[in-house]
Each structure stands twice: as C-alpha cells, then as structure tokens.
Amino acid sequence: MTGRQERASTTPPSPERPLGPRLILLNGLPGVGKSTLAAAWSARHPGTLNLDIDVVRSLISGAAPDTAEPARALGLAMAVEHLRGGHDVVVPQLVARTDQVPRFADAAGTAGARFVHVLLEAPDDLVAGRLARDAATRRRYLGPAALAGYAAGLREVALRPGVLRLADEGLSVAVGRLEELLGAA
C-alpha cells in the first residue's frame, strides 16, 4: 500500500466505552497529585495513554522556555491519534491560562472524542510539603510568587463551564471519586 491511509474523523463507541473515548485533562497546581492520579487511573484502564506533557517536554532539546509550546503541540497531536484508535487519554497538566483549555477540547473534538476537564485540589500545606520533598529540577522555579500566579490562573480556569472539581483525599479515594466523576460526565 502506498500513501497515507485516511482515518475517520470520529471514533465509534465500544462496549468498554459506550460514549466513545475521552480526553481527560487532570489540571491543578504543581504537587497536587496529577501525575500520581493519572498513573493510577491508567493502570486501572488498560489502553489508556497517560500523556505527561512534561515528559514530552524533556525529550525536546533546548532551553525550558523554548520547549513548552512544542511539547504541548506534540502532546496534543499524540492525544488525537490515540483517541482516534478508540482509547482514552489522560493528561496530567497544569493549565492555568483560560486561552489554553480550548486546545485540549479541540484535540478531543478533532478525534471525535469527549473532553473532560477535572481540577484536582488539595490544601496549600499539603501541596507545599510535596513540593518541598520533590527534587525534580523542573520545579526549581516554583517559589511562592509562581505558585500564587498559578493559583490565580486556576481560579479563572475553574470558572469555565463543565470543569469538574476533585479534592485530594488520598490516592485510593481520589481514584474512586475520579471514577464517579467520569461515569457521570
């Protein structure tokens, strides 16, 4: 066969996902538990792509400010392809700007999938403690001013229609609550 095979613009539902695949954006402050929850969710749902944009970003050479946009664009393209295959995609990503959220919804729409936006929340002291214990170099810039800016942005993002809120009450409780939220979404 020569040339590129064209795919349908929508993904049909399956017995496992009667409403079709979903792009699940797990949003929240750094250290709130997005990546941990995404890994736990993916482990319970075989075939789910746990698409950590920070991992994609680490694969692109260059200065950190120069890699954010290419990583997000590449990640969203990966999401579209996986959704078209009929599988869920979960994206643990801080999205603190209202103009960025539609990019995720558009990616889901392009693949004929549903978009579900979940805002993971935890007490400030819990987040601060996690960040203090996290030695990841990508978090060196996270001082009080940066966190306050992200928190302010998330308050704006949380006002968007359809945002589901999930309190971090421990991993097993959070996974169960995520199951409930996504079952109702």
UniProtKB/TrEMBL annotation:
InterPro entries: P-loop_NTPase. It holds the Pfam family AAA_33. It comes from the Bacteria. It comes from Promicromonospora vindobonensis. Gene3D superfamilies: P-loop containing nucleotide triphosphate hydrolases. This is AAA family ATPase. Residues 1-21 are annotated as: Disordered. CDD domains: SIMIBI.
